[in-house]
Amino acid sequence: MTDTKNDTVKLVTGVSDAFLVMKTASETSNSAPTYDTQVWRLPTLKKVGFKGNGKSVDIYGSSKKFATISQETGVEVSVSHLGFPIELLDLMRGEVAKNGVTFTTTTPKSLPEFAFGFIGNKQDGEHDGIWLPSVTLDPAMNEEWETGEDEFKEADLDMTLNAAGLRNSQVYATKYSSMRESAADFSIENFFKQVIFDEESLAAAVSAATTPASEG
To answer: pLDDT, tens digit, for every residue of 106-123?
Structure first.
């Protein structure tokens, strides 16, 4: 048998850029979401962690286990980073600045929705990629300020995101691996040029990646 990338284990070597795209219209039970054309690519990511609420239930029939049913409806995403552009943070918070000032209130409000993704680096130039197509910023404030010292040290910032399944398809994550043989004509860069959240958006992204540019 010939060894292929599918058969090879590549160690994780770190996390690379983060990607964020604001939704321009949320999905409904029978329509897909739409996203802004601007993809924010952020080279400031330090660490990403997932904490899902998945659970499984054993189903019994004829006095023996018939099946195991599993479900995950939401994921808490912890993000450690060096900083985000203030314009993007305002969009994520749903705040509009006037004269450089925003007002954060206790009034209940619907939070802006967006897609969040990131690249995971592996040995020998291989990559994993994940899009979370329906995310909101956790409203609980988590900020810390510390006095400066003579010797500079970086200050890592933390935020928490809440990822849920799309209302029309229940998809909460789209996962790419360059280790799969089917990824030969579809790179990690192609994967992050737009939000991929269903079969149709994947087909459009693959078509754009494999269609030769027309000569002017």
So the answer is: 999 899 999 999 999 999
Per DSSP bridges, beta strands 74-81 and 45-52 are antiparallel
214 lies in some domain? no
199 lies in a domain?
A: yes
Based on the structure, what is the number of domains in the chain? Answer: 1
pLDDT in tens, 4-30: 667 788 888 999 999 999 999 999 999
| Contacts of 97 by beta carbon, 8 Å cutoff, 6+ apart | 90
Beta bridge mates, 122:
12
Alpha carbon distances (Å) from 3 to 9, 127, 179: 11, 19, 12
- Rounded Cα distance between 89 and 116, Å, is 13
H helix or E strand, kind and range, residue 109: none
DSSP E strand stretches across 169-215? 174-177
Domain span at 103: 13-53+68-141+154-209
In a domain, 204, yes or no: yes
Q: What are the C-alpha distances in Å from 40 to residues 43, 51, 61, 114, 182?
A: 10, 24, 51, 11, 27
Instruction: Say how far apart CA 188 and CA 184 lie, in whole Å.
Output: 10
pTM for this predicted structure = 0.88
> Has residue 146 been placed in a domain?
no
Residue 215: the pLDDT is 52
